[in-house]
Write a structure and sequence with these properties.
Blueprint: E1 2-6, H1 8-14, H2 17-33, E2 42-46, E3 51-58, E4 65-73, E5 85-93, E6 99-104, H3 105-124, E7 131-135, H4 139-151, E8 156-160, H5 164-178, E9 182-184, H6 188-192, E10 197-200, E11 219-222, H7 235-240, E12 241-245, H8 248-254, H9 256-263, E13 272-275, H10 276-280, E14 293-297, H11 302-316, E15 323-326
Parallel strand pairs: 1-6, 7-8, 7-10, 8-9, 10-11, 11-14, 12-13, 12-14
Antiparallel strand pairs: 1-15, 2-3, 3-4, 4-5, 5-6
Helix pairs in contact: 1-3, 2-3, 2-11, 3-4, 3-11
C-alpha cells in the first residue's frame, strides 16, 4: 500500500488553527453522540518518570478512519533544543485495515490541544473575555496564544514562566509575530491578576495557579498536567469552578488537578459537571452566570489526534510533492 508521510513543517502549514478548531468541534460532537470509540491510553514511564512512551488508539466515527498516536513524553526537554512530545500518528482505513498515513505527532499535538482549548473557550468563557494570562512559555503557550486569538478579541496578554528569560523571549517573539503587545511578568500571580482567560501550559508538579487569584467570571484552560500525581491548579481553584473535562473516564484516572483535590476531601466525582461534547450538543449547560469561574481540564484524546491527522492527510495526499512509501500490501495469491 502507498502510505503518505507528513512531516512537522507540512503539518503546520496544512493544519491552520481555524481549521483545526472546526475539526475538533466535529470530533467532540461525534464523541458526545456515541459514534466515536475512545479507549484509555497506556503510558510506559521510564526511570522515575524521566520520560515515557504513550500509546493512544482511537476511532473518531466521522471521518471513518482508525488510528493510533505513539508519542514520547519528555518534560525535561524544555531546557533542550527538543520538543517535549515526539512521535507519529498512524492512520488506517476501516474496510480492510490498510495503512493510509504517518503524520508527525508533535505538531499535531501542539495544534489540536490548543484548538480544543479554543473550542472550550468559545463554549465556556464570557463573550467579551479578552485579558489573557499564559502560564508557561513553551510550545503550548505559543499555540494557545494563536488559539485564543481565533475565538476571542484579546485586549491584553501577559506571560509567565519559571524561566524569566524564556518568558521574555516568548513575549518578544510572539509580539512580533502577531503585532500585539505581550508583557512578560515575574510572578504567576502578576499574570493572572485581572485576567478573564487563563491557560496553564506548564510541566509543573505542584500548583502554579491558585484559586483565590481568579477573577469572578474567569475561564481557565488547564492543559499541562496529565498524570494523577501532578497538578497546575490548587484545590481552591478546582473547588471554585464549574469543572468540565474532555473525557470523564480519563479525568477520573489521570487528572491530577481534580484527583488531588478529591484526595483532600474538597470535591467528589460529581464536581465534574460533564464533558465538553455534552456542552457542545446542549446536553448540559456550561456557564450559568457571568460570575462563574469555569475550568476545562484537558488531558488529550486520541480521537483528536486521529481526526486532525486525517484532515492533514486529505490535504496532503493530493499534492504532487507528497512523500509516499510502500507499507503493507496485498496478500500473495496462493495457487
Amino acid at each position: 500500500m502507498e502510505v503518505v508521510v507528513v512531516g512537522h513543517t507540512e503539518v503546520r502549514s496544512l493544519l491552520p488553527m481555524h481549521e483545526c478548531i472546526e475539526v475538533m468541534e466535529r470530533t467532540f460532537r461525534s464523541l458526545a453522540e456515541g459514534s466515536a470509540l475512545q479507549p484509555m491510553r497506556s503510558i510506559l514511564w521510564l526511570r522515575e518518570r524521566f520520560g515515557g512512551l504513550g500509546l493512544m488508539p482511537g476511532h473518531p466515527g466521522s471521518p471513518d478512519v482508525v488510528g493510533v498516536k505513539i508519542v514520547s513524553v519528555y518534560p525535561g526537554n524544555a531546557t533542550t533544543r527538543y520538543e517535549s512530545h515526539q512521535g507519529a500518528v498512524m492512520l488506517f482505513e476501516t474496510q480492510h485495515g490498510c495503512p493510509l498515513a504517518i503524520v508527525d505527532a508533535g505538531e499535531i499535538t501542539a495544534i489540536r490541544t490548543a484548538a480544543v482549548s479554543a473550542l472550550a473557550t468559545r463554549l465556556l468563557a464570557l463573550p467579551d473575555a479578552g485579558d489573557l494570562a499564559l502560564l508557561g512559555a513553551g510550545t503550548q503557550a505559543r499555540t494557545h496564544l494563536e488559539a485564543m486569538r481565533a475565538v476571542r478579541r484579546l485586549r491584553r496578554v501577559r506571560v509567565w514562566s519559571r524561566s524569566e528569560g524564556q518568558a521574555q523571549r516568548f513575549a518578544q517573539r510572539e509580539s512580533e509575530r502577531f503585532g500585539i503587545e505581550i508583557e512578560p511578568v515575574a510572578r504567576a500571580h502578576d499574570a493572572v491578576d485581572g485576567a478573564d482567560l487563563v491557560c496553564t501550559t506548564t510541566a509543573a508538579r505542584e500548583p502554579i495557579l491558585h484559586g483565590d487569584w481568579l477573577l469572578a467570571g474567569a475561564h481557565v484552560n488547564a492543559v499541562g498536567s496529565c498524570t494523577p500525581k501532578t497538578r497546575e491548579l490548587d484545590t481552591q481553584a478546582v473547588l471554585r469552578s464549574r469543572l468540565f473535562v474532555d473525557r470523564i473516564e480519563s479525568a477520573l484516572h489521570e487528572a491530577g488537578d481534580f484527583l488531588l483535590a478529591k484526595s483532600e476531601g474538597a470535591v467528589g466525582d460529581d464536581h465534574i459537571l460533564g464533558e465538553l461534547g455534552d456542552v457542545l450538543i446542549g446536553r448540559i449547560s456550561g456557564r450559568k452566570q457571568a460570575a462563574d469561574v469555569t475550568i476545562f481540564e484537558s488531558l488529550g484524546l486520541a480521537v483528536e489526534d486521529v481526526a486532525a491527522a486525517h484532515h492533514v492527510f486529505e490535504k496532503a495526499r493530493g499534492a504532487s510533492h507528497a512523500t509516499r512509501v510502500e507499507l503493507g500490501g496485498l496478500r500473495d495469491a496462493v495457487s
